[in-house]
Automatic annotation (TrEMBL):
It comes from the Bacteria. Residues 205-239 form the C4-type zinc ribbon domain. This is Zn-ribbon-like protein. Transmembrane segments: none annotated. Residues 78-87 have a biased composition (Basic and acidic residues). Residues 89-98 have a biased composition (Polar residues). It comes from Thermobifida cellulosilytica TB100. Residues 14-193 form the CT398-like coiled coil hairpin domain. Residues 78-98 are annotated as: Disordered. It holds the Pfam family Zn_ribbon_9.
Amino acid sequence: MRAEPDHQVRLLDLQEVDAELDRLNHRMRTLPEHEQVQRLDARLTELRDRLAVVETELRDLEREQRKAERDVEQVRVRAERDTRRLESGQVSSPKELESLQSEIASLARRQSELEDIVLEVMERQENAEARRAELEREVAEAEAERESADNRRSESVLRIRDELDSAAQRRARIAGEIPADLLGLYEKLREQNAGVGAAALRYGRCEGCKLELSTAELRELRTAEPDEVTRCENCRRILVRVPDSGL
């Protein structure tokens, strides 16, 4: 392939812009805010799951408390009824009187036990409410932190997109100055060689693979026509001769 020396040198400008585009795209993919937002999303999911468990526990405790309070009230009403009956003097039989007194004592013990249950449930409720308040605080903090990280990410993405747009415009302008066959070869080699399709020959070394050329290779390049498109024997990239090639 043959191409004007100026067109070959222009490949180096194109390669520089392509390298910049690759760096910008890499920055876009690896923004630290991406990881921060993902970490905070996972943290929020965990906190919200824990909060849902506590809220379910509180609902269960509220039902348990209402039941225990109803049980206390039922026992209290029954004990009051039996006490009024005892105090009214309506019971004259010693055996029935003894049975009534025993039942009142049993109801008193049962009421005390149920009241202890109510107090225990209330204590568990208090602990659960404290856990809920702490989790709500942690959720609010994580949400604020996530929003801040997302805002920083959006700002970074916008800045990088502006740089990408500017670099893409420069690339289109440079690519339009390069013959189609030379540009096609460059694009093919760039795809095959980790994004580098053309490299300068400087001081006898290929800037693409960073290897020095042999004396024989340099002699061939020295005698090649200026419009001949040369390739590095090591990496096969387009090798562009420049003033400080060392030829």
